[in-house]
Each structure stands twice: as structure tokens, then as C-alpha cells.
Design a protein that fits this description.
Elements: E1 4-9, H1 13-24, E2 29-35
Parallel strand pairs: 1-2
Length: about 35
């Protein structure tokens, strides 16, 4: 199965970190980058 690649973008680092932690629990999702404002 193809993994879903995600770029996280949010102004708040804490929100990005939380979303990253949640997405890491799913083996079908790969966070490829993070960005702020």
C-alpha cells in the first residue's frame, strides 16, 4: 500500500509537534516536512 505523505504547516510549534506525534502513530502516513509562517 502507498504511504500518504504529509507536509505539516502551522504557525504554532506546539500544534505542529502534537500533530506530528499523532500522525507518527499511523504507519500509512509519512510526515515529509514541517513549516511555520
Amino acid at each position: 500500500m502507498t504511504r500518504i505523505r504529509v507536509l505539516l504547516a502551522d504557525d504554532h510549534a506546539v500544534v505542529r509537534q502534537g500533530l506530528y506525534a499523532l500522525l507518527q502513530e499511523n504507519q500509512d502516513i509519512e510526515v515529509v516536512a514541517q513549516a511555520s509562517d
